[in-house]
Amino acid sequence: KIYRASTTAPVNIAVIKYWGKRDPTLNLPTNSSLSVTLSQADLRTHTTAACSASFPGPDSLVINGAPQDISGPRTQACLRLLREQRAALESSSSPAPLPSLSSFPLRIASVNNFPTAAGLASSAAGFAALVRAVADLYQLPASPAELSRIARQGSGSACRSLFGGYVAWERGGEGAAGGAEAGAGAGTGAGAEGAQARADDGSDSLATQVAPAGHWPDMRALILVVSADKKGVSSTAGMQATVATSELFATRAATLVPRRMAQMRAAILARDFDAFARLTMRDSNNFHATCLDTEPPIFYLNDVSRAAIRVVEDINKAVGRIVAAYTFDAGPNAVVYYLAENESLVAGTFKADMGSAAGWDTERGRAVQINGG
Ligand code: DP6
């Protein structure tokens, strides 16, 4: 007998960025972060998990048809935690015992509905879908928040893809270098040694929904695929280098982000686009400033990214108020947030301006409109 479960998970794009780990093993972040979930009609990962006593081991994972190496600690941590929960269910299930799925080899297959060549980060949707597919297969009674705790260990940003709408990843106070978010030493890892004594499993570092997508149904996002190339410095390696060497980063993590998290939450709850947009742009720029402040410096933005920033600035100046906001992750692709009422202005200007911008790759560069709801 083969047991099976399928699920999907959306892509999310942070407006307050996660950058920095206070505990790389448990993948605990230095600061909290907040993201907007993109429409699954446009960008999502679909994952099927299957297990059977008749499958030859070991576990396997195929993404878009390509077999993956899953021996790394990230995937192993997720699978181990899910198996442990299943094993606990099985051992408490007498007198009607459950099949011992936890001991069967797993076969997991994922497919993205967006081209891998689009150069969009897919690890967030990927790990979120993987964790939920296996949790469904194992019939775990886990809530999305509990699953987010597991997905976090696959890839930090994945914990925010277990919800729709507006999602916060709370850094939590447990684990190495825990303590209050705004507390002294938060962010630099400097307190890591002292905190080892009370280090635990970091189980309070998980995602929660700030507001469902329907709370702000007019939110839209435009994705500008500047480059489909694999990024030069991976986010995992980049953020470790930033934590280790950037002096700007300590201020960002200890002071700026805690304040902005509160302001962003309030802006979203009040549907205040002006505040949402300003915070989004400033936080993206601050994150990239800490990358530049890293030794050696990390450059994720290129000339086309900077041209996109100028287009947003020009649109906002022409209208006389802020109607568009850009943000960039660990790569040159831009995501531009705007409200539906400004659709033709924002999308139209990007098409007109970016299509002819110097350095714009007209072959691969394209704007994909997605629904932020
Ligand atoms: C810039 O979640 O990819 O996109 O936890 O090491 O897998 P790991 O990092 P990852 O980092 C994402 C960084 C970011 C900002 C964000 O999504 O918050």
From TrEMBL:
Named in its record, the pathway it takes part in is: Isoprenoid biosynthesis; isopentenyl diphosphate biosynthesis via mevalonate pathway; isopentenyl diphosphate from (R)-mevalonate: step 3/3
Reaction catalysis annotation: (R)-5-diphosphomevalonate + ATP = isopentenyl diphosphate + ADP + phosphate + CO2
What's the name of the protein? Answer: Diphosphomevalonate decarboxylase
Region described as Disordered: 177-202
Q: Which family does it belong to?
A: Belongs to the diphosphomevalonate decarboxylase family.
Q: Where is the composition biased (Gly residues)?
A: 177-192
Query: Which keywords has UniProt assigned to this entry?
Result: ATP-binding, Lipid biosynthesis, Lipid metabolism, Lyase, Nucleotide-binding, Steroid biosynthesis, Steroid metabolism, Sterol biosynthesis, Sterol metabolism
EC number(s) recorded for this UniProt protein: 4.1.1.33
User: What sequence ranges are listed for the domain Mvd1 C-terminal?
Assistant: 221-373
User: Which principal EC class is assigned to this enzyme?
Assistant: lyase
Q: Where are the transmembrane segments?
A: none
